[in-house]
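Appendix B. Chain record.
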Amino acid sequence: MWLVYDSEEKLVLVTNSYSEALAEYKLLKNSWKDFIDENNEFNGDERVILARIEKDFYPYETDEETPEGDNYWDWRESIY
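Structure tokens predicted for this chain:
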């Protein structure tokens, strides 16, 4: 599992596909380079990250319904 992070957009992508993550990383990296070259602005906190995810903790909607008819939520952790 892979993630792409951008200092402005924050978490951009989470995917099982390395090639998809790498393509998004390259796109964002080139966008930052082009922006800085064209505008001559540089703050120093511009950052794009491609990272492999080892663990992922997140909420998910269960199949169980509340008395009001909404689904219950629970937590799940995936280890890759």
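Further analysis of this model is presented in Appendix C.
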